[in-house]
Amino acid sequence: MLRGADPATVRRAVEQGEPLPGTAGFAGALDGRLVRDVLGRQPLFGTPDDWGFTPDAAAGSSVPAGHVREFQDGETVDRRIWSLPDPPAATDDVAAVAAVERAVRDAVTGVDDRADLAVAFSGGVDSALVAAGVPDAPCYVVGFPDAHDVAAARDAATTMERELRVVELDHDAIERAVPEVVAATGRIDAMTVAIALPLYLVAERVAADGFDRLALGQGADELFGGYAKVVDPADDDRVEATTVRGATREVIRSLPAQLERDTLVLRAAGVTPVTPLLTDRVVEAALPLPDHLLATPERRKVALRQAAAGWLPDLVVDADKKAVQYGSLVSRELDRLARQAGFKRRMDRHVDQYVASLVDAV
């Protein structure tokens, strides 16, 4: 009835209004109502008497993160019971970084490293931290042959002395997987599809190789200031906040929708996602970080990189990272395929139209 936590823990969190009760996220049915954790790390859909963990398993919309969905006077009502904590900015840099280091090390080394686990590995500090916590798990990178992520992952795996398996993409794989990704996510826009495709295709290969779980570095960019738009938010119209810390918090609020998309597509491919950098303790360590420990014009994810120093090789700690749709070159090749199919860039949302045509064809 619940995923991600036991009923006693969730019940106590409900009763006490505790948003971060020491879990890695949870969702499901509890005492006649639906519950979903404050960051929406587990998707949940439907009503208290007709619900499921995928959109097609229930007749109803997604339960908002941090809410319970219950019946009141015969109506379905969503009631917020958890909000993300908003602690003051830390004033002791050394203590703040040490808290991040402890939380991250505990999270990644605490992953159950049974033989059914693999790691999604891009060569950046996020996935490298996860890989360091499970030293016997094979690492997988996905991308077209000339992709940034493939080259970066090879360099990092060599430096870390890790086994790396490359999931090399081609146009046939993209065209085949697009309708499957759309079916899993229920979304057809090009951005969603471009992000979800590499996740789906690497997870599909992981499952085919006999692994049931895939560990990922999800959440680190949002929690620790990994996006370019948080560096100078006052001059960036992609965010409303005017401080790095405010912009980072704004980005964190986007996590529920992103995690819902990613979890649905990974499960559709046959694996269960494991996201140690999104555990409550890591979130608690990230929230108080001041601006200069999040992002500066010279460096992003400052505290996380400082926490990783001494554990990971310098090449990996300082590695430049691209969003998965760009680092894998899936976004570029989707655009190329769309134009080859007659959907030119002068057309409105030409890649969206191409995606829709692939779905219609099946």
Automatic annotation (TrEMBL):
Cite the Gene3D superfamilies for this sequence.
HUPs
Q: Give UniProt keywords alphabetically.
A: ATP-binding, Nucleotide-binding
InterPro entries assigned = Asn_synthase, Asn_Synthetase, Rossmann-like_a/b/a_fold
- Start and end residues of each stretch annotated as Disordered: 1-25
- Domain Asparagine synthetase residues, every copy: 100-230, 250-345
Its domain of life reads: Archaea
The answer on whether this UniProt entry bears the keyword ATP-binding reads: yes
This entry's Gene Ontology molecular function terms read: ATP binding
The protein, known as: Asparagine synthase C-terminal domain-containing protein
